Amino acid sequence: MVMVMGVTGAGKSYFINQMAGKKVVEEGASLSSCTQHCTVVPISVGSVKALVIDTPGFDDTSRSDAEILGEIAKLLTGQFTLGFELKGIIYIHRITDNRYAGSAIKTFEIFKRICGEKAMENVILVTSRWDEVEESIGASREHELRESFWAYMLGHGSSLSRYHGDRESARAIASQLLLKDTVMLQIQDEMVNGGKNLDQTTAGSFVDDSLAKQKAKFEKELKELEELRRQLQESDRHMRRQVQSDLQTQRGKLIDTEEQQVSLKRDIVSEVKEEIKTKRSKWRSGAKKALPLLPIALNLLLMFVGLPPVAGVSAVLVEFFKD
Q: DSSP string spanning 140-205?
């Protein structure tokens, strides 16, 4: 198994479609995220077969970082529990970005903490969209990534590759990972072997700390708005209505932030084991049926990762696991 990660719009889905040799996952043409949930795609590179996971970016336009981290954590726990080998992660970044924006920094910091130092040798940092920049400009940005933002991971064994937008380039990058030994990521080790809840993992605590700062900011703004409302005279009706509307908005943001923090305080390993146990029990009782001709382990994995919404994917998976 290989995971593909990166910010929204980096070209993760396009990269996977090129690896597969056809369009199997939707590609986004706007700044909004096209990949809403983790999706599994079977590919073959030479004689090697692999499951590639397309993931939503942590700067998703409709889902929180806490929600996305929880989904990825469940998938990784299911993958490990069910015995699927993880070969590593391909992280994709647009070389067209003229600066390393805040969303890219945040996403990469979460990603770095998911991997952990010991797993960095199983990471390929990929720059995409080279056809959209002049070579000299792209090379300058690549140098900055190498010497600054990505220096730590590169210094601990990660490799750097350019993706040129075609199938051959995508498969060459994937081949580098498929030849590596199986890896266990830091977040997996912390949850499975360390018995930690998601918020206690290095990646989870990073997201939780960001939420704590947001919560403090919203609480301060709420206090200021409430004080302003008290000071306004009855004659300032328009202003009072505006302040009341702002108060409701800020309360909603505060509640949402608190709910995200609660969602991180989860025992992901126990959740996954219980879901697997329940699914197997339903199959035995005949209440539900597994997808025919697919290995039981893969049927169970599909509880934690979706299939692309295109015709024939189930048939491809069946054919994929025949040998």
A: HHHHHIIIIITHHHHHTT-EEEE--SSHHHHHHHHHHHHTSPP---HHHIIIIIT---GGGSHHHH
Interval 159-200: pLDDT, tens: 999 999 999 999 999 999 999 999 999 999 999 999 999 999
Beta strands in the chain (DSSP E): 2-6, 39-45, 48-54, 88-94, 123-128, 159-162
Give the whole-angstrom CA distance, residue 209 versus residue 228. Answer: 29
User: How would you classify the pairing of strands 39-45 and 88-94?
Assistant: unpaired
Which two three-digit tokens encode residue 145? 């990534």
CA–CA distances in Å: residue 170 to residues 16, 20, 41, 298: 8, 9, 14, 25
Helix (H, G, I), strand (E, B) or coil at 283: helix
Query: In this structure, which amino acid lies at residue 121?
Result: E
- Condensed to tens digits (0 to 9), the pLDDT of residues 131-157 reads 999 999 999 999 999 999 999 999 999
Exposed, middle or buried, 159 (CB in 10 Å: 0-12/13-18/19+)?
middle
Mean pLDDT across 69-74: 95
Q: 303: which DSSP letter?
A: T
**Residue whose C-alpha is closest to residue 18's, from 43, 53, 51, 36:** 43
Instruction: Let me know the angle formed at the C-alpha of 92 by 88 and 93, rounded to the nearest 5 degrees.
Output: 150
